[in-house]
TrEMBL record:
InterPro entries, sorted: C-type_lectin-like/link_sf (IPR016186), Collagenase_NC10/endostatin (IPR010515), CTDL_fold (IPR016187)
Organism: Caloenas nicobarica (Nicobar pigeon)
Protein name: COFA1 protein
Domain Collagenase NC10/endostatin: 1-166
Matching Gene3D superfamilies: Mannose-Binding Protein A, subunit A (3.10.100.10)
Amino acid sequence: LHLVALNLPFSGDMRADFQCFQQAQLAGLTSTYRAFLSSHLQDLATVVRKTDRYHLPIVNLKGETLFNNWESIFNGNGGQFNIHVPIYSFDGRNIMTDPTWPQKIIWHGSTANGIRLVSSYCEAWHTADMGELGQASPLKTGKLLDQKVYSCSNQFIVLCIENSFVS
């Protein structure tokens, strides 16, 4: 399953699932992509189909392995990954080095186990209000689920996950 970033950073007010779907289509990818975010309807840990959570590796756009499988992201270690394996945007840029994302931080709105944090997910990703808070992770920590809280007015990286495998 591919883990890919949206082509631009977003504040806490985003239509992330739609953006993931649209940018994947524009990039010529045929599978379904969902935002790597907890929402008011779903915990991040359950975004990928149950049948695909254990046996498929999580890879970047070029097929390099980021995680052994979906479940390994939520084992309590904060989604530890190798920072030397790049994460790419739908248009092929390395988000760790490209200046389009000056802050190397990803929104996620979750606990380290992928459960939604209702107090820290920018009102279900519907507000960029400076006074509201969202859970995010600085990528330099090597963790996708580091537990840091930021104002929803910040423009951070939004990741998308291919949520079902199509051969």
